[in-house]
Amino acid sequence: MTLLIKKNPYGFFFISLAYICLFDKIVYERKEQNQKGVIMSKDKQTEVLQQLANQMNDARESLKGAEEMLKKMGLDPKDLPVPTDEPKPLVSVPREQDSSSSGQDPVGKIIEGHFDGQNMIGPDGKTYPVPANYASKSKLIEGDTLKLTISDDGSFIYKQIGPIDRKKLIAKIDLDSGQYIAVVGNAHYKVLYASVTYFKAQPGDEVTVVVPAAGDSTWAAIEAVIGS
Prior knowledge:
- The protein is of the alpha+beta class.
- Among the domains are: 1-94; 166-227, CATH 2.40.50.140.
- The chain is built from five helices and ten strands.
- The protein has helices spanning 2-7, 11-35, 42-73, 132-138, 193-198; strands at 109-115, 119-121, 127-129, 145-150, 156-162, 166-176, 179-184, 187-190, 206-212, 221-227.
- It has a five-stranded antiparallel β-sheet, with no helix packed on it.
- Residues 1-9, 33-39 and 88-106 have low confidence and may be disordered.
């Protein structure tokens, strides 16, 4: 997704629309599967529904960001060019459990990796999407170690298992070409759009951000809004 936005600043607008269509398709397929006798336990259904709710919220937030960017540029969605890249889904689509299964939730596949500011990078260099809301609420920063459990139904469950040393800085929120940033002197750190909306921050607001204690970083996590 990052590459797509660099090539085409409007790309995430189409990606957001694609996600919403994907989720509508998931809901439709679930209705059909329920009619055919494919069932889930109450706990599993609640877990899947919560995951879908979080994913749809992320998609809406991304779409809102695209609309705000277009508005600032004085453009309309119909003015956007056709994307040249095929958008890749950031989430996995859970598979249904068959009624003939044992009823026990499998442990699933476990992968450990580090957070790069947006995603988890596995030991093989593969990128695993991390829900923006989870990253924002957990205040994840670059270098944090995460454990990803991929269950047999396709659900992604993340857990922070190795937070790196941190330091806090006072910054000001700004908007640069559709990307929210935290400005600390001459240093600019990217911040997740979901984090900005979660803390209800606005450009010009003074905030406390968290960054790695040592080394350079591209991303920062918002910890709190101090004021305008």
